Amino acid sequence: MTLPQLIQTIWTVTAALLIILILLHSPKGDGLGGIGGQAQLFTSAKSAEKTLNQVTWTLSTVFIALTIVLSAGWLNPQG
Fold first, then answer.
1. To the nearest whole percent, how much of the chain has pLDDT over 70?
2. Please, what is the Cα angle at 1 between 65 and 55, to 5 degrees?
């Protein structure tokens, strides 16, 4: 397996994991409860959601960086 193939594989796995992690996030919208102030009852920060956010941001950064590397053609220079 060559380096560009390895990077493409990592990029694909990162994309799939990002989709899964984004679907695992809880909705942030207040909905109709925000009108009467009901949304402020449950604002405690959970460590699971904090960890989920950190992993999502890390994977998105890796995904964007690999997208730039792959699209710029830096791995296979044409001499």
1. 72
2. 35
Residue 70's pLDDT band, with cuts at 50, 70 and 90, is very high
Query: How far apart are alpha carbons 3 and 8 in whole angstroms?
Result: 9
- What tokens were used for 52? 């989920």
Span 13-47, pLDDT tens digits: 999 999 999 998 877 665 555 555 555 555 555 78
Cα dihedral across residues 63, 64, 69, 72: positive or negative: positive
**Structural contact between residues 7 and 70, judged by C-beta atoms closer than 8 angstroms:** yes
Could you tell me which of 25, 70, 75 has the C-alpha nearest to residue 50?
25
DSSP string over 36-78: TTGGGG--PPPHHHHHHHHHHHHHHHHHHHHHHHHHHT-SS--
